[in-house]
Design a protein that fits this description.
Radius of gyration: 14 Å
Order of helices and strands: EEEEEEEEEEE
Structural class: mainly beta
Mean pLDDT: 95
Strand content: over 45%
Number of strands: 11
Largest sheet: 7 strands, mixed
Distance between the termini: 39 Å
Length: about 130
Amino acid sequence: QVQLVESGGGLVQAGGSLRLSCAPSGRTFNGYAMGWFRQAPGKEREFVSAISWSGSSTSYADSVKGRFTISRDNAKNTVYLQMSSLKPEDTAVYYCAARPPRRIVLSTDPSEYDYWGQGTQVTVSS
């Protein structure tokens, strides 16, 4: 069974940093764009960031722009989300997802992602 596995979540104080990682289990995602989404209690899942297969194109939600950085190492089959200057409102379960190759390279729409991880909890204390 194909699965994406996230790691790196935890509890951090406001202003701190965390780096999330996401790696697939069961297959590789050659050509796939990857995205990070998050869901806070009582809220809908929201887009955080996405990166193209080559890494040359990236996209960020306005709420994280300038604080989060997405990257990928295709040799290690891993996607990262470096989160800095964390705020209590960043508290959520963070999910990585894989989107098959499309003419429009990046998407903020979770319905366009075919594979999802189980999520990793990020808690930012004030």
